[in-house]
Amino acid sequence: MFKRRRHVTVIAEGLNIAGNVSAEGLVEVHGEIEGELNCTALHVSDKGRILGKIVSQDVVVNGTVDGPIHGVDVRLESKARVTGDVHHESFAIEKGAFFDGRSKQKSMHAKEKSGQASTKQNTVRPLQNGSGPKARAEATAA
Fold first, then answer.
1. Of 61, 70, 86, 110, which is most buried, counting CB atoms within 10 Å of its CB?
2. What radius of gyration do the chain's Cα atoms show?
3. What's the rounded Cα separation, in Å, for the pair 36 and 86?
4. Total of domains in the chain
């Protein structure tokens, strides 16, 4: 009878949080967080700002992040300003985004599951995203 609602936590514009944040489901950041953020999915709006480590499955940044990002799918949109390393399985960067850090691709290969982690060197290559003149870049293993 009742549909289960997806958990959404909104950090509103003008709200500043100092400390670690942990939430289930999607977190939308329009304000500021200074501390570690752990969640299932994250969207940092163009006015949002995070100063600290991010751990999330899906990460979309269109605002400012100063700290490392640990995610499976990470996308930096055109207004993103990210300073810090990005640990990911897939990584896309839209035209206009600023990224100052290292891209570290992680994969789920059998040898890594057994505890032997490998380090891959990543390069960034432009891709057409099919929406006109905008282009994005995706990190790929070399």
1. 61
2. 16
3. 15
4. 1
